[in-house]
User: Which sequence fits this backbone?
């Protein structure tokens, strides 16, 4: 059996692919290091894409709603200036909100920290009184606490020894932290710059991507990928809108609950809870910790009841409010929203929680369309089979009809002959 040149090329290609896969499996550490290096290089651009997608929701609202009168009144000059002005206004609004939030939080945190330092002696006295009450209840003389003395010289020597042992590690950790912080700031600035370019030239980038797809793959596949990209963009935009609405709802409920229980700093803490709720799980814990720290300086029991209240509110938000709000915005049933958040968080952590819902919504829409197409194809095939069966059963009836029509024609001809 002779092999054609085309078959030989396929065999060589298959052997080459198998060899590459074998080498990759034998050197997984090198492969992972290479992928990590590639991810570090493109991470600023991925961050810029995420920032652009999120801010595009606000910029689209500004362009289509706020600037609608100007869009109808002015012509070519306004069309050239509209996009840069809307981008500047979008970033100005976001930066302004962040600054206002920081100006609200940091002064209160500094005052709370100062109050903590000021009340440490009172806390020490309260702790001593509590310890004496416990000893009295246990029938132990409280004089044990007064006779209890600490060897401060020994404690100081032990602390100095620990500091000397840990100083090289601490120095190395500080160097690593400083380099990581500098790298993070650089990546963030680069990502913001890339997001600005994406928002300014989003139509041009979309058009270039479509030309690239249609140039290198078939028309049907390119159109299918373009439809998936449009669906993903629409779903992600609705997801961001739903996330903002959900954060507003939980912040508003927190404000109502704190006002109902007469807790201080209700507005400030509610704003903190609402803003940090934009990040699932991690943001909620961070917001709760900040609110509890602020209330701890006023009254420790108030901070305790605040934590209990927020935990209950988070359970209601996670199991009732979040699935309903996001399900309405992204077109995904509430059960699957909860499933997407759980699975995404378990597999990819915080990032999985953020992209789990829009990704599940896109897959849900694609699966629904595929099911509809297959059911329609099966229905069409069933109808065609029914037509074929009807045609197969029809010849006998058609012969009888033809014989009846022939008899009628003969009888009519005879009648016409008699009349003539």
Assistant:
């Amino acid at each position: 059996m002779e092999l054609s040149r085309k078959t030989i090329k396929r065999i060589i290609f298959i052997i080459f692919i198998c060899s590459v896969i074998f080498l990759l499996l034998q050197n997984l550490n090198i492969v992972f290091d290479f992928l990590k290096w590639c991810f570090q290089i493109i991470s600023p651009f991925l961050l810029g894409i995420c920032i652009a997608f999120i801010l595009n929701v606000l910029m689209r609202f500004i362009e289509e709603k706020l600037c609608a009168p100007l869009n109808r009144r002015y012509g070519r000059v306004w069309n050239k200036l509209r996009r840069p002005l809307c981008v500047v206004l979008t970033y100005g609004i976001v930066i302004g909100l962040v600054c206002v939030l920081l100006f609200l939080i940091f002064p209160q945190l500094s005052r709370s920290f100062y109050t903590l330092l000021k009340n440490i002696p009172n806390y020490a006295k309260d702790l001593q009184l509590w310890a004496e009450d416990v000893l009295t209840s246990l029938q132990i003389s409280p004089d044990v606490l007064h006779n209890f003395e600490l060897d401060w010289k020994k404690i100081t020597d032990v602390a100095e020894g620990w500091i000397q042992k840990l100083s090289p590690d601490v120095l190395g950790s500080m160097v690593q932290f400083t380099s990581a912080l500098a790298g993070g700031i650089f990546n963030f600035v680069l990502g913001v710059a890339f997001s600005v370019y994406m928002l300014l030239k989003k139509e041009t980038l979309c058009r270039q991507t479509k030309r690239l797809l249609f140039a290198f793959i078939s028309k049907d596949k390119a159109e299918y990928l373009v439809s998936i990209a449009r669906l993903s963009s629409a779903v992600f935009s609705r997801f961001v809108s739903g996330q903002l609405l959900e954060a507003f709802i939980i912040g508003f409920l927190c404000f109502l609950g704190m006002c109902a229980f007469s807790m201080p700093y209700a507005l400030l803490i509610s704003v903190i809870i609402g803003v940090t709720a934009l990040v699932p799980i991690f943001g909620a814990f961070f917001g709760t910790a900040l609110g509890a720290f602020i209330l701890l300086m006023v009254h420790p029991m108030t901070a305790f009841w605040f934590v209990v209240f927020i935990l209950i509110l988070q359970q209601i938000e996670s199991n009732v409010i979040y699935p309903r709000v996001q399900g309405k915005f992204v077109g995904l049933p509430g059960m699957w929203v909860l499933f997407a958040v759980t699975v995404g968080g378990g597999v990819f952590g915080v990032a999985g929680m953020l992209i789990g819902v829009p990704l599940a919504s896109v897959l849900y829409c694609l699966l629904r369309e595929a099911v509809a197409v297959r059911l329609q194809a099966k229905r069409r095939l069933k109808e065609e089979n029914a037509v074929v069966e009807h045609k197969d059963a029809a010849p006998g009836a058609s012969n009888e009809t033809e014989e009846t029509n022939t008899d009628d024609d003969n009888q009519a001809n005879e009648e016409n002959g008699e009349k003539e």
Remarks:
- Residues 400-405, 412-420 have pLDDT under 50 and may be disordered.
- DSSP finds 14 helices and no strands in the chain.
